[in-house]
Amino acid sequence: MAPFTHATLWLISRLIPGPLRPGWLEEWRAEARHGGWRMIPGALPDAWTVRSIARHQASGGRPPGPFHALDQDVRYALRTLGAGRSFALGVIGSLAVGIAATTTAFALVNTTFFRPFPAVHESDELVRVSVGGIKRVYFGTTWDEYQILKKNLSSLEDLSAAYQTRFAVAAGGGTEPRTVDGLVVSGNYFAVLGVRPALGRFFVAAEDETPWARPAAVISHNYWQRHLSGDPAVLQRTLIVNGAELPVIGVAPEGFHGINTGGEIWTTFAISDLAFRDGTGRPVHARRAEPFHTMFVGRLNPSSTPEQAGAQAAVLAHSLTGLRERGFKDVVVRAEPLRVRDPGKDSLRALGFMAVPLIVLAIACVNAANLLLARATRRSTDWLVRLALGASRWRLVRQILVESLLLALAGGALGALLCYWTVGLAQRELQVVVFAQTIAIDVNVLLFTLAAAVMTSLVFGLGPALSVTRAAISRAPEAGRFMRGAFGSRTRSALVMLQAALCLGLLATGAQFTNTLRVSLDDDGLPDAGHFLSASVDVDKLRYTAADADAFYSQLLRGVQDLPMVRSAALVKADVLSGGVGSDLMLRVQVPGEAEPRRGVLGMYAGGELFETLGLPLLRGRTFSPQELRGPPRAVVINQPFAEALGGDALGRTLQIAIRTGPQGMPATPVDVMIVGIVAPTSLERTVLSLPMVFYPAPLVQETALTLLVRFDGGAAAAAGAIRTTVAALDNRVPIERIFTGEELRRRRHTWEFTLVKAISVLGVLSLLLASFGLYGVVSYMVTMRQREIGIRMALGAEGGSVLRLVVRQSIVPVLAGCVLGGAGAVIMAMLLRSRLYGVSPMDPLAFGGAALLLLITMIAASLAPARRASRVDPIQVLRTE
Amino acid sequence: MSSSSPALSYTGLFILQALAQGHRFGFDIMEVTKLPSGTIYPALRRLEALELVTSDWEKDLKARKEGRPRRRYYELTRTGKEQLREAETRFRAVGRLFPKRSTA
Question: What is d(CA A793, CA A805) in angstroms, rounded to the nearest whole number?
């Protein structure tokens, strides 16, 4: 006998109670000798029969429990669902869409909130130690403070430190350097996390002590595969990291990118001067650097609890405070269990995130409920017969619930597949990575899908089950054939209304956000964004001397200005266009005759033709002369907000300005400057340029990370190419990071809104499809049930057209009611979200009207097909069958 | 289903008849009745539970001589035989209701 047959029989025999099993197997093996594998389909029902007979005999005729003969219900359900395949497919399809949407959202939430860190050993034992203020702001810490924490937290086995930075990394052999996220870590970092190398070795504890004794790098699995093409001899290779040659000593396991922060490359604090700079921009070792933001992760002793660690940490605050100056006293040291996020705190946000997909699931549920209700009503004779034969009401309810559960499980399975596909697509196409982790479909997600399916089946099954059986008990068999109102029952109308309401809510919210976003983008304040380019040109990584850096930047600016397609070019501090007030933009401004320096004034180096490039009109005075641009700074241009803050006629006044450095650094020497011009503030949303600003024509300290802003004619690709060539001609080791056109910058500034709007729009369209499908189902059902009535109407002289109008009109009434309800819901939603979305008005008539119109048109279209069927009813045919 | 007056299905009747004609194991009955395996075996179990049929194993020696596993042989019990006779009478009576068809 074929092993396949053998194995299948053995598997099936597992169904059979132990004592009967050997006999059953022997018999079937004998039978299969004759019939071969085509006997197999019979073995399963046989085994099932043997099993139920044995059970029945074992129970000795006890009264059946509430779940007695459940298998009968399942078989019956499968058979009836198989018979009504279009119904089953409709329900399964609807549910699959709803469940897929919810599961995808949950997969994101799951990755963000619940997933343990990949490759990390026993992450429950890890605690995060943080140094901050009372109100949960995190402070930077110094190396000495790290040593104090490490020495005094005795409840921890060890404490690791990691500083996130970006490295310019070249794979060697003259390849172009690339900016890569990386971490500077303590030697014990990998040991504390319990991560094992995929290849080679990791750092050891002593390796962070002696500067430059054994410089080395560890790379991520991803970097190895993507940029070194998985070279098996990677351990013999070196990387040029920020200009220094580092041998690769190990490869991290797949999926590991650090804790909370993402990194592709790790080095130790022994060579921290690769990444750290002092107040004047010179490389400095972490030991002597100003406080820097560090992620401390420690592993608990086996005998200690996180609470003990927390208590120890709290006491340490005292010894840290002694080391600190000025505004950074009142230190709080915390040690808390490490999680990606805090589920307790963030569960509300997670729920908010899931809200919209849950609405889609609700619409799908309503669809399923409607279809189930329709079908169950059609089977009213069936129920009456069963009741007459002595079935209890529970048995009928159970039958419907079993059917809905089967449907929901099938929908769930399909939904999980859809979700798998969606997530895969999102990751491939959109490069969605959440907190350095890839979104995973794990057991949690699958359990969620299962739970969602079961809950869904209860939600959409119980209502119809109860209402139909109630009707069956209270009414004569004929009663089910006569309809009350348009949908025959208030329940169905209410369901249609609810669906329309949910759908309109989503559509209107989506339309409104899209509208708001478009308006805010059009009015972005950066004129002619298509001919604007920004590129970060960063020599910080290359250990340039101050003079070299100055020379490089002035040559670069001149070179770019000389390019034929360039209209104007400027050099500014990085990221002025993406918002974020860094402490490096804070300027100490002393107005002569005033006791205190001005607060809240920002300052920026504005080399080249900044105002022309950004399109900031000069209101008064002049811009910088070529001589002033060569420095040192003697003249400044200020913007309107600062001019207003100064009061009176600002032009021609003198100021003392100085860069503010970090808390431990000395303030730079103040420079006397004169205000020569006033420019308009930008209307660019959320950028520092709309705050009070002072622009100075030459750097006050050495600048090592500047962004080139260019306004050009012609194509963006040509301009970007020319800029790359210019940079490479000056120094081909300099990486050009983040070349963006104005359009791209604008999109990046609004990433959050774009994602939200896209998600809501997609879900809105899905819900519209679901709702229209649902209405179509209900109206078709209604038309079938009312054939007799329609036949009589037509026999009495009604025209096809008037029947059509009647059916459509009656279908649309609950939809209209739903529109009102959904509109109200959307207003509330917009009010709730107003704080998150800039400039959303709670009531945008255009968006609401548009969404309602779209919904109505779709719904009329959905009811039109069954209505046409109704209008073609042949009265003679109908009345004869009655 | 109460066991006092077991309703005999067509399938059950076919099987009882096949057994009465001397077809003794599942595959044999399948061949002669042309019913699928998924019908025959469960029906045999039910008939056995209703004590219309009993089963016994084939002699080990005989099976080994023919080089195959033992078969389970089924046979009619006394009640089984009675049921079959009763059914025959009943169906013959039914047959007389449709004289034209019975000649065809």
Answer: 13
Select the more confidently predicted residue: A498 or A754.
A498
d(CA A788, CA A878): 6
Q: Which position has the token pair 């054994």?
A: A214
Question: Model confidence over A790-844: pLDDT tens digits?
Answer: 888 888 888 888 888 888 888 888 888 988 888 888 788 777 766 655 555 556 7
Higher per-residue pLDDT: A774 or A596: A774
Q: What is the mean pLDDT of residues A507-515?
A: 76
Residue A168 to residue A217: CA distance in whole angstroms: 13
Q: Is B77 on the interface with A (CB under 8 A)?
A: no
Nearest-angstrom CA–CA distance, A313 and A334: 6
* DSSP 3-state of A572: strand
Of chain B, the percentage scoring pLDDT greater than 90 comes to 1
Mark which residues 755-794 of A lie under 8 Å from B by CB: none
The DSSP 8-state label assigned to residue A291 in this structure reads P
Whether B40 and chain A come into contact, CB under 8 Å, resolves to yes
Residues A31, B42: C-beta atoms closer than 8 Å: no
Q: What is the pLDDT of residues A749-773, one digit of tens each?
A: 666 667 667 777 788 888 888 888 8
* Contact flag A42-B69 (C-beta cutoff 8 Å): no
Indicate the SS3 state at residue A266.
strand
Q: Which two tokens stand for residue B95?
A: 């047959």
- The per-residue pLDDT for A543 is 67
Q: Do B41 and A34 touch (CB under 8 A)?
A: no
- Contact between A618 and A611 (Cβ < 8 Å): yes
| Separation CA A446–CA A436 (nearest Å) | 22
| pLDDT value for A299 | 92
Who among B27, B36, B38 is closest to A31 (CB)? B27
Q: Can you give the pLDDT at residue A663?
A: 37
Q: What residue type is B97 in one-letter code?
A: L
How many CB pairs below 8 Å do chains A and B form together? 60
- Which residues from A are below 8 Å from B63, CB to CB? 30
Inform me whether the pLDDT recorded for A184 exceeds 70.
yes
Burial tier of A671 (Cβ tally within 10 Å: 0-12, 13-18, 19+) = middle
The helix/strand/coil state of A838 is: coil
Tell me: the pLDDT tens digits for A452-485? Answer: 888 888 888 887 788 777 777 775 444 444 444 4
Q: Contact A49/B69, CB-based, under 8 Å? A: no
A59 touches chain B (CB under 8 A): no
**Cα angle, residue A221 at apex, residues A220 and A224 outer, rounded to 5°:** 90
Q: Residue A649's CB: how many other CB atoms inside 10 A?
A: 11
How far lies A760's CA from each of A66, A513, A541, in Å? 44, 9, 41
Interface contact flag, B72 A35, Cβ < 8 Å: no
- Mark yes or no for CB contact B27/A57 under 8 Å: no
* Partner-chain residue, chosen from B38, B49, B72, that has the shortest CB–CB distance to A27: B72
Record: contact A53-B49, CB cut-off 8 A: yes
* pTM of the entire predicted model: 0.58
Portion of chain A with pLDDT greater than 70, in percent: 81
**Chain A environment of B72 (Cβ under 8 Å):** 23, 26-27, 30
Answer yes or no: do B72 and A26 touch at CB < 8 A.
yes
Query: Of A27, A34, A41, which has the smallest distance from its Cβ to B38's Cβ?
Result: A41
A35 in contact with B, Cβ within 8 Å? yes
Give the strand pairing for A217-219 and A244-251.
parallel
- Residue type at B64? R
Please judge whether B72 and A49 are an interchain contact, meaning their C-beta atoms are less than 8 angstroms apart.
Answer: no
- Smallest Cα–Cα separation from A130: which of A116, A118, A145, A112? A145
Q: Could you tell me if the ipTM is greater than 0.95?
A: no
Q: List chain B residues with CB under 8 Å of A56.
A: 49
Cβ(A533)–Cβ(A387) below 8 Å:
no
List of residues 6+ apart from A737 with CB closer than 8 A: A179, A535, A536, A537, A538
